[in-house]
Amino acid sequence: MPGSEEESPVEIRIGIAHTGRELAFDSNESADAVRATVTEALTSGAAFVTLADAKGSSYVVPTAGIAFVEIGTDQSRRVGFVA
Q1: What is the pLDDT of residue 78?
Q2: What is 10-71's CATH topology?
């Protein structure tokens, strides 16, 4: 979020076709940046998309195998009780 000093990680879940598992990780990229990266890879016909998690690991995912991509919001999570 522009203007904020500390951004919270964005949760990303990628469904892989023909498998019962998902790839799930947190990224320090903004939700818009992740969305743009994935959209560009899919629309350009790239063979794969590369994303990095909050711990510095990289994930290379074949675009042909992507069933879905769920991108969480980059707003900080609220902590506490709701009355």
Answers
A1: 59
A2: SH3 type barrels. (2.30.30)
